[in-house]
Amino acid sequence: MDPKQKDLNITTIKEVLRQYLLEKGFRNTPERYTILEEIYSMEHHFNVDDLYLLMMQKKYHVSKATIYNTIEIFLDAGLIRKHQFGEKTLTSSSYEKSYFDKQHDHLVIYKKDSDKEIEEIIEFCDPRIQGIKEAIENAFGVNIDSHSLYFYGTKKN
C-alpha cells in the first residue's frame, strides 16, 4: 500500500474510533490511538503478546491490561476481528485489522510434528463460498451478515 493511502486509512480509522468513543461515553485517550495505529501498520495476524512486545520495543509504556481492554473496544467498534486458530500460545486468540478488509477465509498450516504450532496462515477468497452462502440464505430464509471459515492442515512433503 502506498504511504499516502496508508495515511488516509489511519486518519479514517482514528475518526471511526473517535466517533465510537464519543457515542459510548468512553475516554478518548492517546494510548488507544497509538495501539490502533500499530495494529493498522501490521501486515499479519497478531495476538496480545505480540502487540505488547511490539509496543515495549517501540518504548510505548502501556500495560498488557490496557491492551486487553483496548482490544475489546476495537472489537466492538468493528476495527478488528477475533480468531481462534487453535494455536498453542499463552493467549489463544488472534486478531486482525478488519475495517478495510473484504470477507475472506483462512487456511491454517501447522508445523509438522508440532502440537498445533502455526507455520503459516493463508487468507483466501473463493467465489464458490459466496454461492454456498446464498444457497444457505435461500434454504433457511435468512440473511447472513458474515461468516468465518477455517481449514487446518500441514504441508505435504
Give an account of the 3D structure.
- The chain is of the alpha+beta class.
- The protein is built from 5 helices and 5 strands.
- α3 crosses α4.
- The longest helix has 22 residues.
- It comes from Kaistella yananensis.
- Its main location: cytoplasm.
Summarize the entry for a quick read.
Homodimer. Pfam families: FUR. With 157 residues, the protein is of the alpha+beta class.
Key phrases:
single chain, 157 residues, alpha+beta, 3-stranded mixed sheet, two-stranded antiparallel ribbon, 5 helices, 46% helix, globular
* Beta-strand fraction estimate: 15-25%
Order of helices and strands: HHHHEEEEHE
Question: What share of residues is helical?
Answer: 40-55%
The residue-averaged pLDDT reads 88
Any low-confidence stretches, pLDDT <50, length ≥5?
A: none
* Total of helices: 5
- The structural class is alpha+beta
SSE topology sketch:
Elements: H1 3-24, H2 30-41, H3 48-57, H4 64-77, E1 80-83, E2 94-97, E3 105-110, E4 118-124, H5 127-140, E5 150-153
Parallel strand pairs: 3-5
Antiparallel strand pairs: 1-2, 3-4
